[in-house]
Amino acid sequence: MTKKSLYVRSNFKVNQTPQFKVLSGDQCEDVYLSALEVLERTGADILSKEGLGLFKNGGCWAEGERVHFPSSVVERAVKNVPSRIVISNRKGERALFLEAQNVYFGPGSGQNYVFDILTGERRAFQREDHEHTATVCDALPNIDFVAGKGACAFADLVKNTTKPIVQKASSVDQCRDIVNLAVAVAGSVEAVERKPFFIFQVESDSPLRGSAAALDQVIFAGKKRLPVIYSTRAFAGDGLPVTMAGALVMALADSLVGLVANQLAGCGAPFMMGGLLSALDLDNGSQSCGAPEHGLLSSAFVDVCRYLQIPNFSMGGCTDSPVLDAQGSVETAFSVLSSGLSGANLIQGCNVMESGNTASLDLLVMNDEIIGMVKRILKGIPVDDDTMAVDVIDEVGPGGHFLGSEHTILNFRSQTWWPTIINRNRYDDWTGAGKKTLAQRVNEKTRGILNNHQPEPLSQDTLAKINEILSKIEYKD
User: What are the boundaries of each domain within the chain?
Assistant: First the structure.
């Protein structure tokens, strides 16, 4: 029998995955050129002495703290940024391939509060919550990395998971301590540089106003040739123009300031950009991470990054709801789906609720399920002779049943997504099982992980080195 795959075809196109774009290539070019105009005409205020010196020596024009960026300087820096970054896990195995449309999901960091899984109440974030977050992330198959803020948090994370770490710091001194801790784990500075198992995350304080803390850390990463995310957190109608296109232009211009600083410090250093871009709720002044504008702006920014061939970072899986309720489920599902379809390389925030103020392990566990569903959608539908199953249809015939077919047995596990907490039982079965809601099932799973999961431990020698470094740290995270 002749197979269709043997036919000679002309101009045959294949969608390997579902297609989703907000901006065309021409629109991305317009946004980029407009950002270059903003940087050249308006410029940015630079509060870092080292950054100011780098920009002056790199060909920029400075008038006090205001720096104007010639397009040639920015374009040269953009071309020098590698189009891919590979982050290993704690064991040195290459884990995150931040390139093209590869997507990876993980939690946020730096929240002031946590939703306690035992009491069901919001409380202040405690250091042990880093350990719990790492343990839960280590156990969840669809969570690809962990995240923390500060050197002590980094130590807690690295002790409790082998997964890669997205790491915030508050100063260059803290960055050095984190690098020293990483060397204690990896064995040498060269091992950290060759197979980094963490990536720094630096947050811009305000668009086009480069703080000393943010730019100095970006410059530190560039000198060390360590991977760094320069993250813009800004909202349309607040720190950005209220129009979506204007917000994109200003957010991109701000990101390019960090990019130029990083590349002047270390030409070709690994660099990502992105952040939390959304709209300000003008009724109550809240900075929404569950609004549709968040998905729209973030996806559009990913389109621009891909146009520039720069690895990109986005927020996803977060909600404005203060509790894990129907609103939280709806907003996180849309957020995970839009960020996944956009092809953002690193998607952070899968434990973040209450507009970024509170972390929730239950939300993280629920998002692991949602991410599994979205990853199944992203796999798309392969169309070939085997999957079209023409011979199988002919064999079973009209009115037949495919359950016992060999074709079904060979393919059903790879074709179908299987839930772990989503309920597919009929009403009587659900009632007989205790009428548990999704939130209750999620909480049971979270508690089970914390009670039973044992992350792969570090050696006693490595733990001793980590504790020695921590004992010499004078500041508090």
Answer: 77-378, 385-415
